[in-house]
Write a structure and sequence with these properties.
By secondary structure, this protein is α/β, with parallel strands linked by helices. The protein has a single domain, classed as P-loop containing nucleotide triphosphate hydrolases (Rossmann fold, 3-Layer(aba) Sandwich). Helices cover 36% and strands 27% of the residues. It has seven helices and ten strands. The strands form two sheets. It has a six-stranded mixed β-sheet with strand order 6-7-8-3-9-10. It starts with a strand and ends with a strand. The structure holds adenosine-5'-triphosphate. One of its GO terms (biological process) is lipoprotein localization to outer membrane.
Length: 218
Amino acid sequence: MVIGKNIEKKFGDLKVLKGIDLNIEKGEIVTILGASGAGKTTLLQILGSLDKPSNGEVLINGTNISSLKGNQLARFRNQHIGFVFQFHQLLPEFTALENCMIPGLIAGKSEKDAGNRALKLLNYLGLSDRLEHKPAQLSGGEKQRVAVARALVNDPLVVFADEPSGNLDSKNQDELMDLFVDLRKQFNQTFIIVTHDRHLAEKADRMINIVDGVIVDE
Ligand SMILES: Nc1ncnc2c1ncn2[C@@H]1O[C@H](COP(=O)(O)OP(=O)(O)OP(=O)(O)O)[C@@H](O)[C@H]1O
């Protein structure tokens, strides 16, 4: 589902990624571990089309995303990739349901279809009594679950998550990781997750350990 070939990334003279090769299957949950500054976020952003590699390429379900540009890239990202960040990034003036619908509307779904899909996901994630709440009225764990529902609304090929539980207490951290495992089981959803936390990382099918821009073990 996600293939990285010899990915390198330089920022000026600083070589952050030094030739990363990986192959992630459909339905796999893969965690990327490593010390601060090892290059985890840089790798995730390149795999998720938010940044370009200096060398190498990324294929998602056979599409070489490194060669897509402008509107083509934006369309591919909107339709096929889901993102969950450390801070939920929900829009404060919209309700949970509206936040969740937005990527569906951008993808060209009707309000009815985007709403139905968002409702189904929010119900599945245990948020049926929070649909009309704005982000400020939700707990940290609830906000992250809305962000997960939003990431899934267009039925993406893969969801990328960068420290998704980094801002949560340990109970909510565990619950969020269990939710990813459950979504994989129910929908065969592929997840690639950056985390510092080995305990959470161990719930994945595979851990990729990055040291100084290279994969040292899997
Ligand atoms: N846009 C940029 N310009 C210059 N240097 C950058 C840029 N983005 C990242 N870096 C550098 O690249 C290195 C890797 O950063 P990255 O954010 O990928 O690490 P990380 O493993 O995710 O760290 P953390 O766990 O602290 O988030 C760091 O030294 C960082 O300062």
